[in-house]
TrEMBL record:
Annotated protein name in UniProt: DUF3027 domain-containing protein
Region (Disordered) residue spans: 218-304
Compositionally biased spans, kind Low complexity: 269-283
UniProt lineage: Bacteria, Bacillati, Actinomycetota, Actinomycetes, Micrococcales
InterPro entries named among the record's database cross-references: DUF3027 (IPR021391)
Record organism: Cellulomonas phragmiteti
Length: 304
């Protein structure tokens, strides 16, 4: 039901301005009159623009009222209220809800959440040695709270879609996946079916949880492929001016044979065979003397 028009309260503009000037730090912060708003029966609010810096869209609001059949306006309350286009602060959110991953620093402590859906009560020993050994020693479930199925699912999705999943540029460009790398440390439990920890100091993911289908250039079983060259292989260069000085080893003189001991008797000399007479060449036939040349022969030789 709309409020009935109240002439007495709507005419109390000067009274409302005086109150606005009293609550403002500076008189010039009270601007032009913006009108009256009927809040209820015999209850009207007068609004004045606020000209203070940083309060654009805000208005000084003074609410006046009167008693039934009264002819005098009385001030109920006065305050600075935001308008439709006012600059407002963000809605207040508790500190525990404002935190984001990475906000926790050294010495910061998160508030305890007893109803955290990511956790569930840990394992309670049953007294059975076989069951307790598996749950406590192998699965490490002997804690007050452990990961719930929701916590494991959220962690798996966050890790797989993060910077160490299979869709990163480094993983796409890698030649092999992490599952075949020798530096991979497996995880226990259900998360070990999809994730492991990198233990390669040369990898950008050293000490981080990576998916098994992730990859990087520091894989243990890969190497840089040789890149073929478009240039022909150059001919070998021979330096004909260089001289290699080689030292010639001196021949080693042979040591003289050791003298025979004096006490040994000389070996008996063998009797020499009798000297045979030198063979004389056999005498051949004597040469026949040539005849002395005659006068006829001399004339023939002279050509006469």
């Amino acid at each position: 039901m709309a409020a009935v028009k109240d002439a007495v309260l709507e005419r109390a503009v000067d009274l409302a301005r005086e109150v606005a000037l009293e609550i403002a730090e500076e008189p010039e912060y009270v601007g032009e009159y913006l009108g009256a708003v009927r809040e209820a029966e015999r209850l009207v609010s007068h609004r004045f623009a606020c000209t203070a810096r940083g309060y654009r869209g805000w208005a000084w609001t003074v609410t006046v009222a009167r008693v039934p059949r009264g002819r005098t306006a009385t001030v109920c309350e006065a305050e600075l209220l935001p308008g439709e286009d006012a600059i407002l602060a963000r809605t207040w959110v508790p500190w525990s809800e404002r935190l984001r991953p990475g906000d926790i620093g050294a010495g910061d402590v998160l508030p305890f959440r007893a109803d955290d859906p990511r956790l569930e009560p840990g394992f309670t020993p049953t007294g059975d040695p076989e069951v307790d050994e598996v749950a406590i020693d192998e699965l490490a479930l002997a804690r007050v709270r452990v990961l719930s199925p929701q916590g494991r699912e959220e962690a798996a999705q966050r890790w797989y879609r993060g910077s160490r999943g299979p869709a990163t540029p480094g993983a796409v460009a890698s030649a092999a996946a992490c599952w075949s790398c020798g530096f991979l440390v497996p995880l226990q439990g259900s998360l070990g079916q999809l994730f492991a920890v990198c233990a390669n100091e040369w990898s950008p993911d050293d000490g981080k949880v990576v998916s098994l289908d992730h990859g990087c250039g520091a894989h243990s079983e890969t190497d840089v492929d040789p890149v073929p060259s478009d240039w022909p292989a150059p001919d070998p260069l021979l330096d004909e001016n260089a001289v290699d000085v080689v030292e010639r080893a001196e021949p080693v003189a042979e040591e003289p044979a050791a003298a025979e001991p004096a006490d040994e008797e000389p070996a008996a000399e063998e009797p020499q065979a009798a000297a045979e007479p030198e063979a004389t060449p056999e005498a051949g036939p004597e040469p026949t003397p040539e005849p002395a040349p005659t006068d006829a022969d001399e004339r023939l030789s002279d050509g006469s």
